[in-house]
Amino acid sequence: MQKLVVIGAGMASGRLLEQLIDADPGAFEITLFNAEPRGNYNRIMLSPVLSGEKSFEEIVTHDDDWYATNKVTCRFGEKVLSVDTARKVVVGEKGEVAYDKLVFGTGSSAFIIPCPGHDLPGVVAFRDLEDTTAMTEAAAKPGARAVVIGGGLLGLEAAAALRLRGMEVTVLHIASHLMERQLDPAAGYLLKKDLERRGITVLLEASTKEIVGNGKAEQVNLADGTELPCDIVCMAVGIRPAVKLAQNSGIACGRAIKVDAQMRTETPDVYAVGECVEFEGNLFGLVAPLYDQAKVLAKTLLGQEETFAMRELSTKLKVTGCDLFSAGDFADGPGREDIVYRDPARGIYKRLVIEEDKLVGAVMYGDTADGNWFFGLIKDGTDISEMRETLIFGPSYQGGASVDPLSAVAALPPEAEICGCNGVCKGDIVAAIEAGATDLGAIKATTKASASCGTCTGLVEQVLSVTLGDEFVLPTAQPVCGCTDLPHEDVRRLIKAQELKSQEAVWQELGWKSRNGCHVCRPAINFYLLADWPLDYTDDPQSRFVNERNHANIQKDGTYSVMPRMWGGMTSPQELIAIAQAAEKYGATVKVTGGQRIDLLGVKKEDLPAIWYDLNEAGMVSGHAYTKGLRTVKTCVGSDWCRFGTQDSTGLGIKLEKKLWGSWTPHKVKLAVSGCPRNCAEATCKDVGIICVDSGYQVSVAGAAGMDVKETERLVDVRTEEEAIEWTTAFIQLYREHAKYLDRPYKWVAKVGLDWVKEVLADDAERQALVERFDISQSVYQKDPWAERAEPEAARRFQPLADLTLKAAE
Amino acid sequence: MSWIDIGHIDDVPLRGARLVKTEVGCVAIFRTDEAEVFAASNTCPHRQGPLSEGIVHGQKVTCPLHNWVFDLNTGEAQGADEGRITTYPVRLEDGRILLDGEAVSTRSAA
Ligand SMILES: Cc1cc2nc3c(=O)[nH]c(=O)nc-3n(C[C@H](O)[C@H](O)[C@H](O)COP(=O)(O)OP(=O)(O)OC[C@H]3O[C@@H](n4cnc5c(N)ncnc54)[C@H](O)[C@@H]3O)c2cc1C
Ligand code: HEM
Ligand code: SF4
Ligand code: FES
Fold first, then answer.
1. Is the domain covering B3-109 a CATH 2.102.10.10 domain?
2. Interface predicted TM-score (ipTM)
3. How far is A305 from chain B (nearest CA, A)?
4. Which residues of B touch A514 (CB under 8 A)?
């Protein structure tokens, strides 16, 4: 009988032994080494063992009886130290064994980030029973905390299991969404939400700096300064094939042990199977292909023909309640088309990727029932052109199913606030309907919902429609764009009511029909998010129009204009010299604008960071002449110079501009302050215009001087400069919080009514709260965009990525 | 084809674009997803708007000047507008962006 020695009693070699013994029980005299002090068990089921849902005994695949019956000599708990391929012997810790055929099944080991403290006790991987036991023991302490590093399959299964054991769990993930190799951002968002619902904290883009502690792991410190106290750290950041032994024995390795399609290494009579192999440059990390390998190797050892081939893989996560599925290739290369389906009410997201009439990738979250059907279409390369329209509804599609535009409202919990002015929740409205209210008027009368500014009217009507069904005919409102059926007002209210703090969240929870919006909705949603959640949301430059992204006005010939701020229209000889020099240096045309400042026109994109740098050096900042934000505050010379001046209009203008600059608004905002009713600064056609009088300041709002011309309306008369600034700021913040994107203040005021605006602002507490919220936003957004972009790293982005005309000339 | 390495995928902002100067004019490299890039002429056929400055959504770009929308797979203008931008072969390898050098050197070879 031939002597077969197997190194490693893992999932792959376990399957190999079964196949071999099934086919020909007498073919080999088998010796099995395993570094772990036990035989083969179902490693993938360590997750339910860790969570306590299963015991270790339940996942053992080959017990002592099995090895005895099949006459396998077990050398468990004994590591193989070396292999002498010339003498054909394997050297274990307790002695040598000769072989005729040798199989490497050494699997992988966990990759440990070599950060300071990685070797402290209490830092474990998630690979074997020892790791699992260490974590279970740590979880036994009441109130124990775990930090899991790695938001991939393994890390998340560990996190969910430890949470089930009652630990406080934080997951650190380096990428911007979870499981980025298997999921797209939308599915990653839903997964994160589900984990958070279970009480797991997820930190994205978290980079681990060090693990510290007194003799054991006690705290993880992140690069951004975050400190996370903990009792155990689980590193699940990836695996590395265990190939040291093979390498030391002179067996050909790349990233792992190289094998051919028969599982033969380049050394005669030496074979390999499992995660320790490399086949045609591929490595392995899931069991399905390993079982194929085991089957092939059994045949090869028995002298039969068989060939291993790569196949498509699909992924699932073994966390109860987190239903995800991904297969094929879903984020790659041109020529592809997406089909997206979202059902916010049920937390479902599905995306199919089609190329040349074939399904090439699928990502699903929330409802994965059709996963295997799609997987089959991918594997078989089925032509799907016939069923393209209905493909996303799966094999059981009966015709007619479509996305319900009301599902976002139907999905709202009763405590979600619908009317922000009067603090009315969905539940209150539903109760009113159940008590007999059947139209908008009755809801207004009984609950006050939509009775104030009225921007929530659409939502109230949708609640009526969802609750009453066909009895209520929904008036059709103009949706934001083709990506959604909801109008702006509803989107704004829902962003607040559901606390949606990212674009991914808006797209998913409000049932967007496209993958990532379009040029109409993206800038609007970006504004709503940054206005409502200044501290939580990060502005997305790629959702802005070119001018706001490049911080300069694009002109019709593709050049830009550059306009520094002149506070209240005041300047100085030094500033003028710097502007003149910049104009000469960059060949700009100079224009005095209607906003009391100087425009430099015709600057090339590549030159922008340099001209900004020069103007910054002279103490000037961006004039934001290109933004939906504060433009200018025009002033007259006022009491400083003019014989009619009643107050320091220039000073007030400068103070206002210094307070308001840098803020983003639904549309542009222009102000002016005149020193007396002669109104030289033309304040009465501005968004906010202030006229100084002997007794104080007349603050008026909602003027226009564009295609529409409209005089401002009086908001309030105040005595002091401080009050004028407070009212102005509160008005602008109210506009920021309520208006539809691209409505100038006069349009917004016409919709909500000046009376409502006055009523809100007249409330001292509310006015001060608005100013406070404005200040919080300014703490993030009042910074000079020029200075940031003149930094070398950011400036690089303004240059071409490459210049191939130079290369060709070389 | 002759693939030329023009930079790393992370040099192009997600849902954004960067320019490459070539003998056939400025070519825009669009990044539509984590690992998805397209290459096409930077110049809008309408009034020469710089497409690399447009908003990138799905596998499309909207011209910053008058909102024409182009499908980056085919280069065709969408909807009622008629026009086409030239697209160029581009691919990703280990995070590097490779552009077909032949297609952007002489028009006759492409
Ligand atoms: C918690 C967890 C969950 C998982 N979930 C899934 C899943 O849901 N789906 C899926 O497809 N995959 C999953 N996997 C991956 C799957 O378990 C592996 O792909 C599979 O176990 C690899 O099998 P293997 O036989 O190649 O290696 P292993 O099962 O790792 O076996 C290798 C064995 O060799 C031993 N060994 C190594 N070197 C030596 C030496 N010098 N001397 C003696 N013995 C040695 C090791 O101790 C080990 O016991 C999971 C893995 C883990 C850890
Ligand atoms: C792409 C189109 C436009 C360009 C390039 C443009 C450009 C400018 C510039 C550079 C200024 C000087 C502003 C400053 O100093 O900050 C200005 C002022 C002005 N713009 Fe426009 N503008 C445009 C569209 C509009 C529109 C649509 C309106 C009307 C709704 C408008 C109304 C005004 C007014 C009233 C002023 C004078 C402001 C004042 O005197 O206080 N502009 N414009
Ligand atoms: S508005 Fe009145 S104070 Fe100001 S410059 Fe004109 S006249 Fe003088
Ligand atoms: S130049 Fe592109 S749309 Fe007009």
1. yes
2. 0.76
3. 35
4. 57-58
